[in-house]
């Protein structure tokens, strides 16, 4: 993976460190030095130095010659989500939606050709796929991904889909460009997207956009059901209206939050304390 930077200010060492972190996942929670080096596309000595640096910083731990991430890695992603204020705003609305529908609901954002989950409230269901905060799925196979892609100009859609998926799932059979373009146009016009067992058997979902104060689509949220329990008609007729209402409420509150006058002032030193 190294060596792909082109700008004069590109820091290769930083990119390699991020490659190390990205090499871990649900199927690779614990890896040896050789496995990390192979997954990140790095020479073994380089991978070793980076792992030891990340260990000293607290992002990686080692035991018995193997390495794994620590919970501190979550701070990197949570800092982004927290900076948006989105989770604090969305949580009570997601919880109310789940209580009303009896189905799981999640929020995701676009990450290259994938979606990445940034918020979730779930109910116990026998769904074929495990979903956690930070999980990646191919965007074109998910209702949330379709909503997010539909909000992009055509050139940005092509650029996003040209990036390799980080989901770890086998590549799906691609659909013709014209078919995808027509589907995204329809989604853009009606304001919601459906994914009917496209990601995995038994997984059916509907998704809608979440917007900021300018009206730009910044995230997508869904309701996910088991196909054997809930028909497409019921999903659209019963759950979609509640989902649209919830997304509208979150968007409105988020717009207010983003427009708030806010300034952080450094705390004054305690009396008698010494500052450098």
Report on the structure:
The protein has 276 residues and is an alpha+beta fold. It has 2 domains: 12-69, Arc Repressor Mutant, subunit A (Orthogonal Bundle); 77-258, 2-Layer Sandwich (Beta-Lactamase). The protein contains 9 helices and 9 strands. Helix 2 (33-40) crosses helix 3 (44-57). The chain is globular, with a radius of gyration of 21 Å.
CATH architecture of the largest domain: 2-Layer Sandwich
Order of helices and strands: HEHHEEHHEEEHHHEEEH
Structural class: alpha+beta
The CATH homologous superfamily of the largest domain is called: GAF domain
Shape: globular
- The share of residues in helices is 40-55%
Radius of gyration: 21 Å
Total domains, how many?
2
What is the fold named in CATH at topology level of the largest domain? Beta-Lactamase
User: Which parts are unreliable, with pLDDT below 50 for 5 consecutive residues or more?
Assistant: none
Overall average residue pLDDT? 86
Tell me about the largest β-sheet.
6 strands, antiparallel
Q: How many alpha or pi helices?
A: 9
CATH level 1 name of the largest domain: Alpha Beta
**How many E-type strands?**
9
Name the beta content range.
15-25%
Going across the biggest sheet, name each strand in turn. 6-5-4-9-8-7
Cα separation of the termini: 42 Å
What's the helix and strand layout?
Blueprint: H1 12-23, E1 30-32, H2 33-40, H3 44-57, E2 60-63, E3 66-69, H4 74-84, H5 86-101, E4 104-111, E5 114-121, E6 136-138, H6 143-150, H7 154-161, H8 177-190, E7 193-196, E8 203-211, E9 217-226, H9 232-258
Antiparallel strand pairs: 1-3, 2-3, 4-5, 4-9, 5-6, 7-8, 8-9
Helix pairs in contact: 1-2, 1-3, 2-3, 5-9, 6-8
